[in-house]
Design brief:
alpha+beta; Arc Repressor Mutant, subunit A; 5 helices
Length: 107
């Protein structure tokens, strides 16, 4: 699983770098960010919203609402675990819900 996560992070870093070099703005629609958040969690063993924001290099204020939306529609669920976030408070660890899959893979 760690190898898949490293590969995902490397691909994500390369994509962000290529877009920056080409002067292409990163896709920032809520739907696009929702899929990025979902895929980030899917390639992990569970992440807090702060950890997702760090990996995607996005503001927590952008990521947290997308996490809430994904939980509300049943694609992500609370794992029951908690980890400290940047402020020191305990945040819920999110995992992919059973049977949920990426929209990009489903199409």
């Amino acid at each position: 699983m760690q190898d898949r996560l490293r590969a995902f992070q490397t691909t994500l870093d390369a994509r962000v770098q290529q877009q920056a070099e080409a002067g292409v703005p990163a896709t920032t629609s809520p739907a696009s960010i929702r899929e990025q958040v979902f895929d980030c969690v899917a390639f992990s063993t569970g992440l807090t919203p702060d950890e997702i924001a760090g990996r995607l290099q996005l503001s927590i204020l952008t990521v947290r609402p997308r996490c809430s939306e994904l939980v509300r529609c049943g694609r992500l669920v609370n794992s029951g675990g908690r980890r400290a976030n940047a402020s020191g408070r305990l945040a819920k660890v999110l995992i992919v819900a059973s049977g949920a899959r990426s929209i990009a893979k489903a199409a």
